[in-house]
Write a structure and sequence with these properties.
Length: about 575
């Protein structure tokens, strides 16, 4: 099978179905490769694409799913970070804003979109001058106009955009723009694009040990978690892009790294769009950092917190205290306060911050570092989602130098991701496209924002099986075809992969996807080779996870929340 991604046919390597995975697993160890990437988050997927697009042979292994860790649990913003201006980190802001422009205009215009924000001002005269100068600098550092320029607003003008705010919540405001991304889908698309360029990308493949030739790292032993079978991957260089698991890699390596990673937990809540009468996002200062209210389709994402975390890395969760912190801060601005009953979803993620002198995690630098703690092993740590491409290029540069190869410099600044090429053409012709597909225009717009020009492949599934055009019961914003496509093209191996990362059903509907889960399991079962017992097991595992997370949200503190969440694994 093939997909038409940029007006030409490409081979099955970008179609991450079970057959692809079987062939890839079987081929592990056949030959020595140039680069083994450990970690399927945004930096690891970016490194795999960077190396493969230079002509290097690449394998990426991820113990869980693409973006299963931090990269699916961010604020879902592509931004420079206004607060870093206050820390005088101009280089980081400039670098991030350059990347924002690339993603919006060239690399992923189907996945990254401009979003407006209102910055309420609390004090007259001095604050407008101070914040206004910062936002003006932010626009200037952003270079060529990827987003509209900022505007100063009176209190009346701000309230017209955001009637949900109290009259006395501000003396005025500044409206500015940043960008938004579905982080999990973007990371998965990076991995698929790497596969298109020849990389082997594997999930549920856990590194159990490193191969050594003396002091040099020459590959890794991995376990296929789907079968329990072990395999050996021989590689001339190994890149660790393991985020908050970096210190675990330190232990596996047995040598000291020049930096450690500290975990900071960030929690977000989701509320229905109609609950806040606003036509713009919102940013406000808190005593620790900033709080965003971010438009997200039919919802608002509100967050984040910024607290130390030293418990389970795989399943960080929001406690009652985290949720109350967010509600207390946002309610200080709202005419009608939000309550826990308004919340339809929560999620918690861990930021990988390099250890610094300041003990407050919100003040640690988000800049990244590359090190070679053992010959042949390269570690990338720190950074922020927006600058993943720069981080990936830096670590591949280091690995290429060790290879001594004549590999070219990074080309990813000019390399659109799958679905980008042709997206604008389809969007400009959306009414005719919708008519041909016999789908509502808004449905096609939804699909284009998730698949770009690959939407045509979703149409192909519907053409073959017309009932796939129907909405998923319990998650009517998604079509049945999207669940099937996740299993046949996007590497989803489990029900949780579809509900949590290929779609965002687990945080977008009040029951967290409990009603949708059986139908989605039924849709994907034949494509993943599940019998009835396996299908029921997947449903029950998802139910257990949801109930554990809901219990965790009621716990008073991190320790109690962590214990409640881990009950689903026992």
């Amino acid at each position: 099978m093939t997909e038409n991604t940029d007006n030409k046919e490409i081979f099955v390597s970008a179609q991450l179905d079970p057959a692809y995975r079987t062939r890839a697993i079987d081929a592990l160890g056949d030959t020595e490769i140039d680069v083994l990437v450990i970690g399927g988050g945004v930096t690891g997927a970016g490194a795999a694409l960077d190396a493969a697009s230079r002509g290097l042979s690449v394998t990426l292994v991820e113990a869980r799913d693409f973006a299963a860790g931090t990269s699916s649990r961010s604020s879902k913003l592509i931004h420079g970070g206004l607060r870093y201006l206050e820390q005088l980190d101009f280089a980081l802001v400039r670098e991030a804003l350059k990347e924002r422009g690339l993603l919006l205009n060239k690399l992923a215009p189907h996945l990254v979109h401009p979003v407006p924000f209102l910055f309420p001002l609390q004090h007259r005269v001095w604050e407008r001058a101070y914040i206004g100068a910062g936002v003006a600098l932010y626009d200037t550092l952003g270079g060529a106009r990827a987003v509209p320029m900022h505007r100063h607003l009176t209190r009346t003008g701000a309230l017209e955009l955001a009637p949900a705010l109290k009259d006395d919540a501000m003396t005025g405001a500044i409206k500015y723009y940043d960008a938004q991304v579905d982080d999990a889908r973007h990371t998965m698309t990076l991995a698929r694009t790497a596969a298109q360029h020849g990389a082997t990308v594997l999930t549920r493949t856990k590194v159990t040990g490193l191969l050594r030739d003396g002091e040099k790292v020459v590959g890794a032993k991995v376990m296929d978690l789907e079968t329990g079978l072990e395999h050996t991957i021989r590689a001339r260089t190994v890149i660790s892009a393991t985020g908050v698991w970096t210190d675990d890699m330190i232990k596996m390596t047995g040598v000291e790294f020049p930096f450690h990673v500290r975990m900071s937990k960030g929690v977000h809540i989701m509320v229905p769009r109609e609950r806040l009468n606003m036509n713009t996002g919102l940013i406000m200062r808190t005593e620790k950092s900033v709080l965003f209210v971010i438009p997200w389709a039919e919802h608002w994402i509100i967050g984040t917190t910024d607290t130390d975390w030293s418990l389970d890395k795989n399943h960080p969760t929001a406690s009652a205290a985290d949720v109350q912190y967010i509600l207390d801060h946002i309610n200080s601005l709202l005419r009608e306060p939000l309550t826990r009953a308004d919340i339809v979803g929560t999620y918690a993620g861990l930021r990988p911050l390099m250890t610094g002198a300041n003990k407050e995690t919100s003040k640690l630098s988000r800049e990244h570092a590359v090190a070679e703690p053992a010959p042949g092993l390269f570690v990338i740590a720190g950074g922020k989602y927006t600058t993943y491409r720069v981080m990936a290029a830096d670590v591949v540069d280091a690995a290429a130098a060790r290879l001594g190869s004549d590999a070219p410099s990074s080309v990813t600044a000019d390399l659109p991701l799958l679905g980008a090429v042709g997206y604008q053409d389809i969007l400009g012709d959306i009414e005719d496209v919708a008519a041909r597909a016999e789908l509502p225009v808004e449905t096609v717009r939804h699909l284009l924002g998730r698949y770009g020009s690959l939407t045509e492949s979703v149409f192909d599934l519907i053409a073959a099986v017309p009932e796939l055009r129907e909405p998923i019961p319990g998650a009517e914003d998604y079509l049945a075809a999207e669940a099937v496509y996740a299993a046949t093209h996007e590497g989803a191996l489990h029900l949780d992969d579809v509900l949590t990362r290929r779609t965002r059903i687990s945080i977008e509907v009040p029951d967290r996807g409990l009603k949708a889960a059986p139908e989605i399991a039924r849709l994907i079962a034949p494509h993943l080779g599940w019998d009835d017992d396996r299908t029921n097991a997947e449903i029950n595992q998802y139910y257990d996870r949801v109930h554990a997370e809901l219990a965790a949200n009621e716990a008073d503190d991190d320790e109690a929340a962590n214990a409640a969440r881990l009950l689903a694994l026992s």
